[in-house]
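Example (one chain per record):
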Amino acid sequence: MADSFDLLVIGAGPGGYPAAIRAAQLGMKVACAEMRETLGGTCLNVGCIPSKALLQSSEKLESARHALAQHGIRLKGIEVDLAAMLARKDKVVSDNVRGIEFLFKKHKIEWLKGKARLAGPGKVEVAGRTVSAKNIVIATGSDVMPLPGVDIDEKRIVSSTGGLALDAVPKKMVVVGAGYIGLELGSVWRRLGAEVTVVEFLDRVTPGMDAELAKHLQRILTRQGMKFQLGSKVTGAKNGKNAVTLVVEPANGGDKSELKADVVLVAIGRRPYTEGLGLESVGIQTDNRGRIPVDKQYRTAAEGIYAIGDVIAGPMLAHKAEEEGVAVAEIIAGQKPHIDYDAIPSVVYTWPEVATVGKSEEDLKADGREYRVGKFPFSANGRARANGDTEGFVKILADARTDRVLGVHIIGPDAGTMIAEAALAMEYGASSEDIARTCHAHPTLNEAVKEAALAVAGRALHI
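Predicted structure:
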């Protein structure tokens, strides 16, 4: 076991482990400290991967109950084996985290097991062992945002972590927060049989998303059976013997009311995880939101120490952290990588999925930028009709003068995959005409992207 490294990464999540791998590819001697028993961070262990496994399983149940009949497939006596579903989810997680462990061995990356803290310039202490490194990358990710007055016990009042491991389907579930995590996990348990009510402080779901998509998503989820109590805040919770009683009041003031549930899921966001990192030992101070300030090369105020992912400014997305992890390794190696933050997509994995990249209409209006809109519904797409998934649309926003694509917003089947074409187009500065003149295979869902691009110029073919 070495005591000195070219690079030491603190955190083996979707930002940290790619940074370690890329640095090893570039010839560095690399170590990665991780306090979990497994690699992969929140995303692989209790976030992105297990939630998508449950979303997939619950969507298959939904399809069996409500969609297969139109295909001439009639099923009787459908049962939910929750234990088997959760076991499958756990296997998906274990297979993924073992994959990261294999990659560490392949690239000769030393895994330092235990919680790490900075112990002065170029020094890191991990589980009582002090090692030195020429460069240090902080990639510790984020943690659940607490809600004042509501104590999470991960049994009846749960965070996203507990929400992935309930041992029974609750009769009634209240989700506090109408963001991506809350709507996804709320969808899982609604499909499995829970009566789900979402309480949100703002007057809309998915804050920050293009408002037209957000409204459409809420309408669809409401039709599916999810209830919404918007413009409301939860100010307290009493965990009783058989139920949790929440105190809810209007966000702008007014009379309080009570809301009872078997399980409450708190999903009001996440906060940077910097607790116990020893930042003070190297003179690093966090900002008013607990984030570590960095420059464009991800350098902190301390020489030789960098930070990426959820602990710095920007969207808390696994793929954003991954791009930064690769970029910071290349910067340390003397290269000059670049990330276009306007071309980083976001996805909500409800059904239908919602995916966006670039500016929303609200962003462009606030900037005073003139733009044109092209929209195309999936109800006019041949493949969507054949699949029986015609809900939603594609919307492309393009500069009114140059036609450059400024934003793409999709709500519909497999939107999370389809958004990649839009992100690539924006990365290379494409115009809507560039997309429109690109031949798209028929019949595919992506033809809706082409048609929306044609619609920017008022010449969509199939509407």
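Caption: The longest strand covers residues 129-138.
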